[in-house]
Amino acid sequence: MAPMRRIHNFKAGRHTASSGLTADFTEAQLLASAEAYDPALSEAALVVGHPKTDAPAYGWVKSLAAVGTDMFAEPHQVNPEFADLVKSGAFKKISSSFYTPDHPNNPVPGVYYLRHIGFLGAQPPAVKGLKPIEFSDDADCIELELDFAEGSEQLLWATEGLVSLFKTLRDHLIEKEGAEAADKVLPAWRLDSAAESLARARAERDAQRETQTPRFSEATQLESTAVTPEEKAALEQRNTQLEADLAAAKAKLRDSAVTANTAAHAAFAETLAGEARIAPADKAVVTALLDFAEPAVIEGESATVVEFGEGEAEQTIGAAIKAFLGKLPKRVEFGEQAGRDRAAEGQADKTDGVQYAEGTPADTIALDKRIRAYATEHKLSYADAAGAVARG
């Protein structure tokens, strides 16, 4: 049997152990681990699976080498039958197990020290991209993995992020709507309960880490996850509830924004009517038009922009409509009887039955007649006819 060549057993990057411990391995840490490895202090064995107690070693790691982001182990004293099994494909993956830098059994404190390399079956790998084990006669390749599996740490992070987001949203609601409105959408007790659940899950995870004994020949290797299935289900249920609360809060914010937007448009229409630029009966139409052209802007939504002519500043559609309405000629107030002897020149034509207020300028009277004639001819409202006449 040809000797087994070096094993690509590890790589730099972020890895999460089955215990929930997450560690970032840099190239510098990889190099430090390789340089610190000394078989005379503690020799890493080639084993099958993840032994809980003393188990036979089928080979040993003679040395480690770090090349960039990759770590390679040089095996020696490999059992021939074991090597045949590896070559035949009986073991599809491998897993590297390390002492943490601060573990009391670490022979070289301050670095991650290789504990053993376990040969596994078809367990899905947690770290992709490792090179296959090589034999000098180009035997069949097998994939490798690390002793780091995706745990529940990501779930804790996700829940923690949601709780923080909802707290921020609650603060925003308090600022905009008041504490009472915020309590209806995101009650403080619900956020506090979620934070307490997170704290308990974190504490239990930390307690499990403290009881870890990483040397398989000295103590049991932990295989339990940081969060129990019941706790995981509770966290997922809490996430679902928080997401529903967020949707309700967003709907409330949108309703508030729409109400405020319509009120602003109604006030603008009221101003136009007060200036006699539109008839009082047209206020509702103007409000609806502006609601359509200038909808409420929520959560960073941008208004539609149109360009008017070369060199002119860009305007939103809503702003353009407001500018146009604000330039409409003032309507003449009716019902105020003016003495014939004091009416402006041009008052003599009464064919349309309209009487103008005392002191009405002649050009205003003439413009009003043009608008009325245009409205009658084209069957338009006074406001639409005024716009058409103004545009020429």
Q: How are the SSEs placed, and which strands pair?
A:
Layout: E1 7-11, E2 13-16, E3 22-25, H1 27-36, E4 45-48, E5 59-67, E6 70-76, H2 80-88, E7 93-99, E8 113-120, H3 153-177, H4 179-185, H5 188-210, H6 229-274, H7 283-293, E9 305-306, E10 315-316, H8 317-326, H9 362-378, H10 382-391
Parallel strand pairs: 4-8
Antiparallel strand pairs: 1-6, 2-3, 4-5, 5-6, 7-8, 9-10
Structural account:
The chain has helices at residues 27-36, 80-88, 153-177, 179-185, 188-210, 229-274, 283-293, 317-326, 362-378, 382-391, and strands at residues 7-11, 13-16, 22-25, 45-48, 59-67, 70-76, 93-99, 113-120, 305-306, 315-316. Helix 3 packs antiparallel against helix 4 and helix 9 packs across helix 10. The N and C termini lie far apart (99 Å). It folds into three domains: 7-120, no CATH class; 153-259, no CATH class; 333-392, no CATH class. Helices cover 43% and strands 13% of the residues. The strands form three sheets. A six-stranded mixed beta sheet has the order 1-6-5-4-8-7, with helices on one face. The protein has 392 residues and is an alpha+beta fold. The chain is elongated, with a radius of gyration of 40 Å.
